[in-house]
Each structure stands twice: as structure tokens, then as C-alpha cells.
Amino acid sequence: RYFFSLARETARTDFFSLLVRFGWIEEEQAKDFLSLSERESLSLMTGFSLRLQTEPIRTAYAFASLYNDGRLFPADSAGEDPGRNYRLVNPDPAVLARIHRGMFLCAQEGTARLLGRKEKNMYAKTGTISWKPGSHNPAHLEGWCLGLHLDTSQRVLVMTRVKPGRGATEAVPLAAEAWNILQRWRRQEGL
């Protein structure tokens, strides 16, 4: 429900231009999406449409960039100098605030609440995609969950993927266990 209200608050042009800047869609596809009815646009904007899907790892990188001063690093940049290989994706501050509010609400009210994390600085999202385009066959589904914990000393992003599986039922329990392991390790290390 909160996703639909946030989508209604967001101009479709802002949303689709942000997807172009993230490299998820091309300009032509954005124009096509802008010609859709409001109902179809809301389905796209809230993730309830098979017309717009992306790899979960791309979502994780985009998610991190929204809390990393708009710096979007390529998915294959692990181990590289973080001062060099990135591009800026600067959403409008009002749009960014809505995105942050939506990600927080996902962790508090959406399926990501199943992570069991109640921290103020916890943002999360779950999803289920079909890795075989257009298929609704459960064997072709991949579930994912990502959670981003922001605190003053460290930013940690945990992502789990289950294939075949669903985000809320198979990926969330793995992510919750990853958070528990991380918390135990941080306590042991005095972090």
C-alpha cells in the first residue's frame, strides 16, 4: 500500500529518468513507459510488472549509490580504487527523500520486515523475478532480499539470492541469518 502512495507522489518523468540514469532502461523505453496508463505506470513503479525487471545485483548497486552521495560503481569494480571508477546519479532531493522513505517502510511494513530488524538506520527490499523472461513457472523464479544498514561508522549491505525461490519466503530467512552472523561478529570484534 505504501508503495502505491509513494508512486503516486512521484512524477513518472522523474521515476523513468532516474532509471535511465541508472542504466536500467534506454531513453526510448522511458518514452514508451511514459505513454502507459496511470495504472500500468504504477505497476511498473512499484515492481508489480514483468515489463520491467533487472538483475538483483544491479538493484544492490543502485541501492548503495542512493546512500553513497549518488556515486554508482560498476558491478565489476570490486577491488578497484573507489575514487575513480564511478558515475554520478543525482536524483532530485525530493525524489531521493521519497526513495529513502520507501526503503525504510519496506523494512518496517513490507516483506523485508521479515528480516526482524527494527533499527532506525535499516533499509531493505525484497523481490522475486523470473529469470526466464515472461515465465510465471515457479521453477523459473529467483527471490532476493537486500538490506542496507547505515550507521555512523559503517555501511553494510547484505544481499541474498535464491534460485528457484521467492524473496519473502526463501531469501529473507537467509538474509536474516546473515545479519545475525554479522551482528555476532561485530560484537566479538567490539565494533
Present the secondary structure layout.
Elements: H1 2-9, H2 12-22, H3 27-34, H4 38-45, H5 56-65, E1 71-72, E2 87-88, H6 93-108, E3 122-130, E4 141-150, E5 155-162, H7 167-189
Antiparallel strand pairs: 1-2, 3-4, 4-5
Helix pairs in contact: 1-6, 2-3
Q: Can you summarize the main beta sheet?
A: 3 strands, antiparallel
Count, helices: 7
* Gyration radius from CA atoms, angstroms: 17 Å
Oligomer: single chain
Which stretches are low in confidence, meaning pLDDT under 50 for 5 or more residues running? none
Helicity range: 40-55%
* C-alpha geometry: globular
Report the sheet-strand fraction: 15-25%
Number of E-state strands: 5
Order of helices and strands: HHHHHEEHEEEH
Distance between the termini: 37 Å
User: What would you call the structural class?
Assistant: alpha+beta
Average pLDDT over all residues: 77
Spatial order of the strands forming the largest sheet: 3-4-5
Tell me about this structure.
The protein is α+β, with helices and mostly antiparallel strands and 191 residues long. It has helices spanning 2-9, 12-22, 27-34, 38-45, 56-65, 93-108, 167-189; strands at residues 71-72, 87-88, 122-130, 141-150, 155-162. It is globular, with a radius of gyration of 17 Å. It starts with a helix and ends with a helix.
